[in-house]
Give the backbone structure.
Amino acid sequence: MEDVVTPAPRRRRLLAKFTGAALMGFAASALALHFGLEAGLRPWGARLISLLCAMHVTFLINGRFVFKALTRRKLFGQWAAYMANSSVGNLCNYWVFITLQATHWPIASDPYVALLAGAVTAWAINFTGARFLVFGELGRHLRDRCLAAFSRRAPGPVPESVERGSSRP
């Protein structure tokens, strides 16, 4: 993954690639939503399944082709970080959609305007998180620190039969 100080043309290419991956995720989501509804699922259930499908599709595309940082060795950690990041973005997406719908303002409450506003919000959050936290240097640093913290062995309890300061049991 590149540094924060990336030349403008490379940043624009990265942004365009991420947007393309997001559009592919949107297509996967729409297809899964359609199949879920056709199978008789309620809309909220079909939407949850479609969001999960989109998150997995975009994880693979972004990790392999956009950020070129997906490795077999770190696959599970990157997957977990990406799912957490995308969950935050999708929660904000849903929150923006519901909030705009609840305003009942003529333009803002239109379902398609609310959908677009929520999608743009999630896109920005997901791009920032994926670039810096999931596949970026900051993410690697945080992951390494967490692994180091969890891999340290805490000293075990002192057996009751041993007196502190004594060498005999």
